[in-house]
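Action item from last week, closing it out:
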Amino acid sequence: MLNSAEVLERIDEYFLSPERLTRVELFSRYARNVEGWFKGELLYLFHNLEEDGFIGEWGSEVRVAVDQKQRFDFKVEVVNGPLIIELKTLFHGMQGG
């Protein structure tokens, strides 16, 4: 199983591929904040990492505590404990409307 730093490296490798960088550049050019796209891509990545045995159990929109409404975008079990990820995209300029 990977540790948290290695999982973050896998995320970097995944999003810094030429194909995905082209998409991100288009999002910026057209002033679109597409946090949902990033979250969807992370669903795909974490599913594959779990299938290949690189990470343990993971979840999206995981409650901070059972009795609270606040949620983390992702919680991933790695060798050195849970990795909590809260995703925020950069503002790309004024949006239409």
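Closing note: The chain has three helices and three strands.
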